[in-house]
What we know:
Blueprint: H1 14-21, H2 26-29, E1 30-43, E2 48-58, E3 77-83, E4 88-95, H3 98-102, H4 106-109, E5 114-125, E6 129-136, E7 142-150, E8 167-172, E9 181-188, H5 195-209, E10 222-228, H6 267-274, E11 281-286, E12 293-296, E13 300-304, H7 310-323, E14 351-352, H8 378-404, H9 409-435, E15 446-449, E16 452-458, H10 475-489
Parallel strand pairs: 9-10, 9-11, 11-13
Antiparallel strand pairs: 1-2, 1-5, 3-4, 3-6, 6-7, 8-10, 12-13, 14-16, 15-16
Helix pairs in contact: 8-9
Amino acid sequence: xxxxxxxxxxxxxxxxxxxxxxxxxxxxxxxxxxxxxxxxxxxxxxxxxxxxxxxxxxxxxxxxxxxxxxxxxxxxxxxxxxxxxxxxxxxxxxxxxxxxxxxxxxxxxxxxxxxxxxxxxxxxxxxxxxxxxxxxxxxxxxxxxxxxxxxxxxxxxxxxxxxxxxxxxxxxxxxxxxxxxxxxxxxxxxxxxxxxxxxxxxxxxxxxxxxxxxxxxxxxxxxxxxxxxxxxxxxxxxxxxxxxxxxxxxxxxxxxxxxxxxxxxxxxxxxxxxxxxxxxxxxxxxxxxxxxxxxxxxxxxxxxxxxxxxxxxxxxxxxxxxxxxxxxxxxxxxxxxxxxxxxxxxxxxxxxxxxxxxxxxxxxxxxxxxxxxxxxxxxxxxxxxxxxxxxxxxxxxxxxxxxxxxxxxxxxxxxxxxxxxxxxxxxxxxxxxxxxxxxxxxxxxxxxxxxxxxxxxxxxxxxxxxxxxxxxxxxxxxxxxxxxxxxxxx
Length: 490
């Protein structure tokens, strides 16, 4: 137990929290509306500070009424909501955030402070609550870093009407929001004349989604909606190319210094548009053809819609945002430093530091008799893929320079075509190499995962979270996705 002065007398941790909260009656504590709490998240690699911005009352609560307490232990941050009068834990959710990634960048390590807007969604409480935010330290233990008292009847709660130029489109409604996964697509960079294109893009991606395991067996567990707000210009920002567009959510490439990381830091614009419909999971579709996307657990996912790799990016990024899956690749360059602490087990369900090889996260899925850790043809793979990554980075820099300098369209197009050709050739080469490996298709513990060449392991040689292409999830990833679907639907 952990004692808080006056306001919070007792904070239950671990299994005791969930046992105590298992009998929460939703209707005793909440009404069927959504409370959105906007916060500012400020700091650098050493400081991590939250401050309250505004509280909103919005439409129907999309989430489950039965699992108000998050028992999945994923995410580097946790919100915990306590009934103020009784100090009882009545709601919690694990999540990740943009600031959590920023704090590992070179700028943050140099002490450059930044502020990001964040939103927390919860069912609307009937009475005064204590909102607490906890953060994991580098050893993955949670520590309280922020708390505030919120009165749902306060005159400061914002109850504004939705903008009139936002349209909600139903793609698939299978039942009660509280018993389904409510997936909401946001149109970004689609002009007024592109509305039908947005509808067609969503329908095309849903065909991919529901043909892919395990979603193919859970189609009836999803409600699918879209929100369309016309953009003044098509596309999105490409700062490294010197191109900026006027769009509703202000998305762009080069996020946190990575040229293919496509996100937005305009959280308020995104949340205001999304508030038009209920959602458990949020997906921003960007009307662009350049390779890119992004996702953060329990925040949102994004993808371009007109690239050769769109289907892959779409599925891969949803794995991050929905199920909290880690990237399993480790040769591709990222802007993060020490994203995982050596010698400590990460919380993500699909990678492991293998601290106890007899109790690996996916031990019930292991191929009988397989060696742990599992030897594989890693050295040759590393040489092959690192050579490609170097070529890719050099070519991307060339393309960005050509665009900034206003080179002829034909020259830029030729460079982009070469980049696409090399990407496809390398993906085919990697697939062929991995399929020839001795332990291909088996479940073990293969070194190389989570941006770490050594000391971090994945469950199979290949997976949607490891290499490009719409190849299957590894068994550990598939298990995690199913667990998340059940969390929302049981």
